[in-house]
Protein: GcvH family protein
Amino acid sequence: MAGKHLKKKDNLWILFNGKEYCVGLTKEAQEDLGEITFANLPKIGKAYQAGDALVEVEAEKAVTEFASPLSGTVSSVNEKISENIAVLNDEDEMTAWLLSFKDVDAAEFDAL
Structure:
């Protein structure tokens, strides 16, 4: 699709859709973790710097903390995760999205 750009960093994928930067777990992260049983997502409106602790994921193999790949403000979270954690175990890694950022410097994304 025009206007979409996908990058990967530290077992996270980042998709710019022309408006926001969506962040999710890569297929490799899903496989490394095994069955995911819990995810602690950030609050909407919270600002992060690249490298800050962003999301904690609990799975059968480990509890893993993922660092923010970008600096920005959380604009949305995947509400389906709280209703059904199994969406993070889906075969399609693009359904394993966690959150979206706004107020991101495009140069920071380009540098990934």
